[in-house]
């Protein structure tokens, strides 16, 4: 499995101010949702990928594997939006009948599903840009500076860490079962999977209690204090970000701005 933490720590963009990266990625993601423009979404998706790969030196294969994870769910969701009950609509592109119910795609449903797909993909690329260039503790540092409630920040950090604890525990149990031919047949696979889930719950709960005890022995009082690095605000980077956003918006709406010249 790809470790996002490892990629974030090895990224060439890690030394950049995390506040700037956070503002840029979140602001761009919000624009993707609000503008609802396919051209803008495509531009942002490509741009974020290019910056993460060529500027951040993230391996292309690792980045593509990460993008494939949400893309599978997006394709499934988009298909369910594109195909609906069409009845006697005249704008049907294609249709088929199941149990006397006429299903198909219309121009409107295809356009809507396309916008949702590219908009969601662009939003995911924005979050990947942040996650692959900024370690989680720096993201939490930014949230603290933005006056996000401490309880939310602490829960976010603990939940993020326990995800990897669960994955590590599940991986060890799976390797142990597989070495004993626990997945040699379908029946054995179901049996092993059930035992894996039950053992995972018990062992992860015990491990979380051990971690909490270790934290309390180190004077944990409900707040995790980390050493924060000091960063200078780069007005040059901020200006570049603003210019990029303006150019992307202008390109996506060039017909309205330039009267269809471009």
TrEMBL record:
Coiled coil: none annotated. Keywords: Cell membrane, Membrane, Transmembrane, Transmembrane helix. Its main location: membrane. It holds the Pfam family CbiQ. It is found in: Cell membrane. It comes from Clostridium kluyveri (strain NBRC 12016). It comes from the Bacteria. The chain crosses the membrane at residues 22-54, 66-86, 116-143, 155-175, 233-253. InterPro entries: ABC/ECF_trnsptr_transmembrane (IPR003339), Cobalt_transport_CbiQ (IPR052770), ECF_CbiQ (IPR012809). GO terms for biological process: cobalt ion transport. This is Cobalt ECF transporter T component CbiQ. GO terms for cellular component: ATP-binding cassette (ABC) transporter complex. The lineage of its organism: Bacteria, Bacillati, Bacillota, Clostridia, Eubacteriales. It is a multi-pass membrane protein. The keyword Transmembrane applies.
